[in-house]
Amino acid sequence: MGEVWRVAISDSFNKFLGKVITFLPNLLAMITILIIGFLVAWIFKTILYRFLKAIQLDKISEGWGLTQILSKEGEAYSPSNLLSRFFYWVIVLITLILGVNALEVAATQHLITQFFNYLPHLFAAVLILVIGYLIAIFLGQAALIAAVNAQMESAKLISRSIRWFIIVLSLTMALYHLGIAEKVIVVAFTIVFGGIVLALAIAFGWGGRELAKDFLERLYRGKGDKDEKPDRFSHL
Amino acid sequence: METPFKIKLEEIKETDILIGVPSYNNARTISHVVRAVMAGLAKYFPKAKAVLINSDGGSTDGTQEEVQKVGIEDFKTILISHPVHSLHKIVTPYHGIPGKGSAFRGIFEAATFLEAKACAVVDSDLRSITPEWMELLLRPIYEEGFDYVAPLYARHKYDGTITNSIVYPMTRALYGKRIRQPIGGDFGFSGKLARFYVTREVWETDVARFGIDIWMTTLAIAEGYQVCQSYLGAKIHDAKDPGSDLGPMFTQVVSSVFGLMKEYEPLWKEVKESQPVSTFGFQYEVGLEPVSVNLERMIRNFRLGVNDLMEIWTKMLPSETARWLESIERLSDEAFSFPQDLWVRIVYDFAIAYHKGSVRRDHLLKSMIPLYLGRVASFIKENQESAAGEVEEKIESLCKIFEEMKPYLIKHWA
User: Fold this and answer.
1) Residues of B in Cβ contact (< 8 Å) with A155
2) Average pLDDT over residues B351-371
């Protein structure tokens, strides 16, 4: 009985030791991957930051107004800094996944494969959102200035409508790209957008008949503002 | 340069004087301008070889035909002697970005090709041009050794508001020369200066449009050419709605002023005070047509700007300036006043923001228009009862403020 007991315990211990010995290289591989990955990420971040500074990305971005968009409440974020940080975290994320993968745990293998298959979609969706946001800010500001210079009282409303329309549109596109409730997203967007256009058409046609008539008359007959006399001095 | 244009120039070979007339749908006025130019050349420079170039932007109203129709017989009664050489007339389309600057580029190229000694450019929509303008624009170059002649006009007290409130005071404060009409549109310049202009790579920028005038004047001063001005009398344009082009006009001119500040930064930082320039011509007072002004609309535009654009302006203006603007916005139309020193500070702050790129440049320039209209409205209110001389004194005081506050610009520039 004692012998059986001893053999059972010894077998169990040997099996565990065997598993540990088999797992240990994987663990070491994971640690090595993590160390190298973090090091590569840090080196890449430093080189990229210096390269972007050297090509004067921040100055170019200032010219495009990108720096202004990225700054919030007086704090300015340099595009060089943001981009190098972004790529740092991308490499760190990939390193972590590779590290976990090196453990060769069956449960994580499938998940990691799925994650890597999904990664391009995720990148594309993030890109759509970022570009959409930048376009929304740019067009919103351009519309605001144009509407003020055209003396439109509702300049802010127009600007905000354009900004939110583009943000919602890019969000819809991003979600569609990620494959999240594709049909629901498209239908919801169509209903909301169609509803807004219909509401505006009814409001303008019903509530603003006189305004519409006046607007069209001025447009086609060159009538001009009834009470407004034009300026006749030269600005130059 | 297009081949047919080049062939015509090769036939002429060389010239003493070259006159450029840029045009776009100016059939109503261009024949008068061409007649004045031809009469002026025949009367004041009868021995000189002369070429007139109409650089046209693709007119569809018969502008080019009008230019071709004008002949020397039309005005031989005013000539004492016949010109030795016949005047060559070339009508040519210009290429590149549509705009006055692109038209001028063709004229500079022709002046360089023909090795012209003296050149002049005049607007094609002028109703007040006389043959004497040719003498006044060309003589200082042809005989006195100057390189650049800016115009000096008698204008309505409300006319030239971009000139009076930004371009003249800025040019004077920055580069130290009191050229009263730096963007007048009618200039004389030497062949040497034309050859210099043509070498510059600016033809894809706002210089190719309305920015050309201030670019020519600034380069002439900054590059050390001999500059002067000539009194031409009244300046009256063909009637059209001047407000229709305000947006592009304003942004293109102001972007050229701000852009040139970067190019000539070391120069203007060293200039401490302004000096008058030589002035030719006999100055006299002119009766000018009254102009209508819609003050309420300008003030309304300013108020809209304060209410809606403050989030953009605060990226460029200090908080005290923003608060000052908000207090002006609350004033009634009767009490409305936009002080000169506030305006100067704003112009300098916008120039600094343009230089630093803290706001997208086209948005910056367009967002400045309501502020400009606010200042113009205040200027008109201040001068409703003033005579021309008093208005000129007010402009002089604005220029002095621009000069006094230049250290503020230098301090915040870097």
Assistant:
1) 304, 308
2) 91
